[in-house]
Amino acid sequence: MSKFEALTGNAAVATAMRQINPDVVAAYPITPQTSTVQTFADFVADGLVDTEFVCVESEHSAMSACVGASAAGARVMTATAANGLALMWEILYIAASNRCPIVMSLVNRALSAPINIHCDHSDVMGIRDSGWLILFSENGQEAYDNLIQAVRIAEHPDVLLPVAICQDGFITSHALERVEIYDDADVRAFVGEYKPQWPLLDLEHPKTYGPLDFYDYYYEHKRQQVEAMEHAQRVILEVAEEFNRKFNRNYGLFEPYRLEDAEVAVIVANSTAGTARVVVDRLRDEGLKVGLLKPRVFRPFPAEELADALSHLKAVAVMDRSISFGAMDNAGPLFLELAAALALHGVQVPMADYVYGLGGRDILPHEIEQVYRDALRVAETGRVERRVTYLSVRE
Amino acid sequence: MTELRGWREIPIGGMILEAGNSVEYKTGGWRAFRPVFGEAKCIHCMQCWLFCPDSSILVDPENEKMVGFDLEYCKGCGICASICPVNAKVIRKAGEELARDDPRLCIRMIEEGKFQE
Questions:
Q1: How far, in Å, are A47, A116, A355 from residue A358 at the CA level?
Q2: What's the pLDDT score for residue A101?
Q3: By the 8 A CB rule, do A287 and A262 touch?
Q4: What are the residue ranges spanned by the domains of chain B?
Q5: Which of A16, A138, A242, A353 has the fewest CB atoms within 10 Å, measured from its CB?
Q6: Is residue A341 within 8 Å of A303, Cβ to Cβ?
Q7: Across residues A53-62, what is the average pLDDT?
Q8: Quick one: chain A helix, strand, coil %, rounded to 5?
Q9: Which residue in chain B has the smallest CA separation from A101?
Q10: Closest CA to A31 of A235, A194, A216, A170
Q11: CATH fold of the domain at B27-89+101-110
Q12: Residue A144, class by beta-carbon neighbours within 10 Å (0-12 exposed, 13-18 middle, 19+ buried)?
C-alpha cells in the first residue's frame, strides 16, 4: 500500500534513495541539496539501507568516487547543486563517456558570482552537452517518481548513461508537500536488481575502464554515445509507461495542459509550471485560449514531438530560468533549442523568450499572466515586438 | 597496421575487455633518454626491477641477476637510475653534481641522439 506523507522535495528524494537501496552513495553537502544526503546518511546510520556511504572532500571527488564504484559494478547515486555540479564538471563527462549509469538528484540553484543559494537553472544548463540525461520535476512527487524511473533508464542496456533529476532549489527542495510514497517492496520490484555487464570486480574477466583513446578510436566512442542518446527517448517512454501503469501516474516526454485547443502557450519547466497552470485556469475562465507545456525530458531533447505539440499555436512564449550569455539575442537555452526545433520541423510560430527568476527571484502569477497577454497580442498581430524580455528585472 | 573497426564493432566507453594486451603496445619509441647498464657495478638488488613502471628490467631468474633493459617498452623515465643504490653511493667531491651519463654510474641515462654502441 502506498501512503501520503508531508515531505520536502529533498526528503522525498531521500526516501526514493532509501527504497532504491543503492550499493554506493558518494556525496558532498551543498545548499540546497544538503538535506537529501543528510537524511539519507540517517538511513545508512539506522541500518535501513545496505549502502556504502562515501564521505568525500569535494564534489569533484564525489563524482570520481561514483565513477569508480559504478565501474566496479555498483548501483550508484549522488546529489548536488550549483557550484557543486560545476566542480563535478570534468568527471560528469567521464561518467557519461565511461557509460556509468549513475543517478543524481540535482537541486537547481544559481551559479556564483555573486554568491547566491537560491533557485535558477544555470547549473543544469551548464551540463547540457555532457552526455547526461536530464529530466525536470515540478514538485516533490515528480522528483520522487523521476528518481525511481531514472534508475531503470540509466541501467537499460541500450542506454547506460548517467541521469540527472532536477528539482527547484528551496521552492521544491525545502517546501513541505503531499507526496505519495509507494510501498517499499513495489519500488524495489520496479527498479529490480542491477546486473552490471562489465563490472571491474568480476575478477574472472579482467578489463580496463578509461584507457587512452586517440584519433583512431575516440571518435567512434563518441558516436556510440549518440546512439545511446537516440535509444534513451524510447527507453524513457517505456519505463514511464510501466511506471504509469504500476503507480497510476501519467509521465511522458512533456506534460501539456489545456494545450489542445489553445492558441497561445507558455513553455516552462520545474516548479513555475505549477504557478503557470493556475494562471491558465484563470485566463481560461475569461474565455482566453491559453495552454501550457511543461518539459520533462530535456536530454535527449524531444525536438520532433515538441514541434508536433506546438504546431497549431499562434504564439509561443518560452520561460527560461537561465541566460545563455552571448548566444543569439542573449536568450535562454530552452528558447534557443526550442526555436531551432520548431524551425527545422517546419513549424512557423512567432516565439518570444522570457528570462525569469534568476537567483531565486520570485515569479508571481500576475507576471506569468503578463507573459500570456503579450503572447495573445503576438497571436493577434503576428509580430513579436521584443524577442527576449528579462521579466521583473529592475531598470 | 591492423584494420580499424567501426563504432558498432567495439566495446562501449573505450573499455578493454581482455587482459594483458599492453604487450601489443610497444612504447620504446617514446624514449628520449636511454638507460645504459653498467653490469660490472650492479649488485643485483632488484630495486630497478621492482620500481620500473613498464616491466622493462630484464632479469635472469635462474641466476637472480639483472641483465639489462627491454628497449621495446622502456620509455626512458629514469626511475631505475634514480632508485639504483649503487648510483647513490658513487663517491663525489664536495658539492659535485653528477651528470646523468657519468661513467661511474651503474645505470646511466644517455640522450638517445648521443647514444653510441
A1: 40, 10, 8
A2: 98
A3: no
A4: 27-89+101-110
A5: A242
A6: yes
A7: 98
A8: 45, 20, 40
A9: B13
A10: A170
A11: Alpha-Beta Plaits (3.30.70)
A12: buried
Cβ–Cβ under 8 Å, residues A359 and A168: no
Query: Residues, chain B, total?
Result: 117
Q: What is the mean pLDDT of residues A26-42?
A: 98
C-alpha to C-alpha distance for A141 and B74, rounded to whole angstroms: 59
Going by their DSSP bridges, the two strands A76-80 and A103-108 should be labelled as parallel
Q: Model pTM?
A: 0.92
A204 to chain B, any CB pair closer than 8 A? The answer is no
Residue A272 vs residues A16, A46, B106: alpha-carbon distances, Å: 23, 36, 73
* CA–CA gap between residue A103 and residue A150 (Å, rounded): 7
Task: Find the CB nearest B16 among A208, A223, A224.
Answer: A208
* Beta bridge mates, A293: A256, A267
More confident residue, A54 or B1: A54
Whether residue A211 and residue B14 make contact (CB cut-off 8 A), yes or no, is yes
Domains and CATH numbers, chain A: 3-247 (3.40.50.970), 254-390 (3.40.50.920)
Q: Are strands A254-257 and A290-295 parallel, antiparallel or unpaired?
A: antiparallel
pLDDT surpasses 80 at B10: yes
Note the pLDDT of residue A79.
98
For testing the chain A interface, which of B12, B21, B22, B30 should be mutated: the one with the most A CBs within 10 Å? Answer: B12
- What Cα–Cα distance (Å) separates residue B28 from each residue in A184, A269, B36, B113? 57, 55, 14, 14
Average pLDDT, chain A: 98
CB < 8 Å to B4, chain A? 216-217
Distance from CA of A92 to the nearest CA of B (A): 14
Mean pLDDT value across residues A186-191: 98
Query: Is ipTM strictly over 0.85?
Result: yes
Where does the pLDDT of residue A316 fall: very low under 50, low under 70, confident under 90, or very high at 90 and above? very high
Burial state string for A176-213 with b = 16 or more CB within 10 A and e = fewer than 16: ebebbbbeeeebeebbeebebebbbeeeeeeebbeeeb
CB-CB under 8 Å, A209 with B7: no
The residue of chain B nearest to residue A199, with distances taken between CA atoms, is: B17
Residue B1 has pLDDT above 60, yes or no: no
Specify the pLDDT at position B34.
97
A257's CB contacts (< 8 A; 6+ apart) are A277, A280, A291, A292, A293, A294
pLDDT surpassing 80 at residue B2: no
Position B21 pLDDT exceeds 90: no
Distance of CA A32 to the CA centre of its chain: 16
Q: Which of A160, A213, A223 sits opposite B14 (nearest CB)?
A: A213
Q: Which three cell numbers stand for residue B4?
A: 580499424
